[in-house]
Amino acid sequence: MRHYFISKEHQESDYFTFITTFQNKSFTFKSCSDVFSKNQVDYGSLVLIKSIIEHGEIFNGKVLDMCCGYGPIGIILSKFLNIDVYFADINKTAVELSEENCKLNGTKPKFVICSDMFLDVKDTFKHIVSNPPIKTGKAKLFEFVDGAFECLEDGGTLTVVIKKNLGEESLKKYLISKFDNCEIWERDKGYYILHSTKTMKA
Length: 202
Description:
By secondary structure, this protein is α/β, with parallel strands linked by helices. About 30% of the residues lie in helices and about 30% in strands. It is built from six helices and nine strands. It has a seven-stranded mixed sheet, sandwiched between helices. Helix 3 links the parallel strand 3 (about 60-65) and strand 4 (about 85-90). Helix 2 (about 45-55) runs parallel beside helix 3 (about 70-80) and helix 5 (about 140-150) packs parallel to helix 6. It is globular.
């Protein structure tokens, strides 16, 4: 789990790029050893991206890619949706890579910041999307949900991916307790896309 928290100084030789294609669009990502899913965009993130695009009619305005890693979720979504995309991650290396990958792919982020969850995020958002740090434990995951709730506008949404065997059921229950709602948008090879809306009542 070191990629969630540990940043170290790198030489240029530590970095590499790879190309991925999503719905006939090509994306180039710069990566290195200290980030999650370093060699390819992980399957869970691709399921999340696909599901969000399928519900694209509700996505507009300010979208935060929290726990962004080297930036694939926000960058790919920015090419399919009319959104203003923001990026945040606790890992300094990931944040630097997100900035570079935005440039490589012609994405103009509103900000890319280093933040422990939502600690240094001062804005509010219409939507938050994330492949959150599941393996850091249930307490941290619930802390993530609490932070997202506080950073969403009324009527805003949180959309996340989680594996069935890594706590999908407990996360769904916690989302319902916090937001008073949770939809399952997709099930694919054990990955679940969960979507909650911050209602005025909540």
